[in-house]
């Protein structure tokens, strides 16, 4: 997951940060578009709710609710 640097600093101060890391999620403050330009990301599935990111990268667009459903184990249509 990616986020703004200031948001990451504040999130790291909460107990939820450690809970998220325990699930195997990695959190970065790199620009998502720059992240997807790395050739190593081409072998990974990237989900986004950003029109800009889906336009300029290989990320697949989903609505916020669809991403949430995927994250909690519900079927994504």
Describe the protein's topology.
Elements: H1 5-11, H2 15-22, H3 32-36, E1 47-48, H4 51-56, E2 60-61, H5 64-71
Parallel strand pairs: 1-2
List keywords for this structure.
single chain, 77 residues, mainly alpha, two-stranded parallel ribbon, 5 helices, 44% helix
Provide an overview of this structure.
The protein is mainly α. The chain has one domain. Helix content is 44%, strand content 5%.
Mean pLDDT: 89
Number of helices: 5
- The strand order across the widest sheet is 1-2
**End-to-end C-alpha gap:** 22 Å
Total number of β-strand segments? 2
The oligomerization state is: single chain
Spans of at least 5 consecutive residues with low confidence = none
Number of domains: 1
Structural class: mainly alpha
What value does the Rg take, in angstroms? 13 Å
Q: How much helix, percentage-wise, in residues? A: 40-55%
The proportion of strand residues reads 5-15%
Order of helices and strands: HHHEHEH
Quick one: biggest sheet? 2 strands, parallel
Shape: globular
Short structural summary:
With 77 residues, the chain is mainly alpha-helical.
């Amino acid at each position: 997951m990616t986020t703004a640097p200031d948001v990451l600093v504040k999130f790291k101060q909460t107990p939820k940060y450690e809970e998220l890391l325990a699930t195997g999620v990695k959190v970065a403050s790199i620009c998502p578009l720059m992240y997807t330009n790395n050739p190593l990301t081409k072998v990974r599935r990237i989900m986004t709710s950003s029109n800009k990111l889906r336009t300029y990268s290989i990320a697949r667009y989903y609505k916020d609710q669809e991403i949430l459903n995927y994250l909690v184990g519900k079927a994504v249509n």
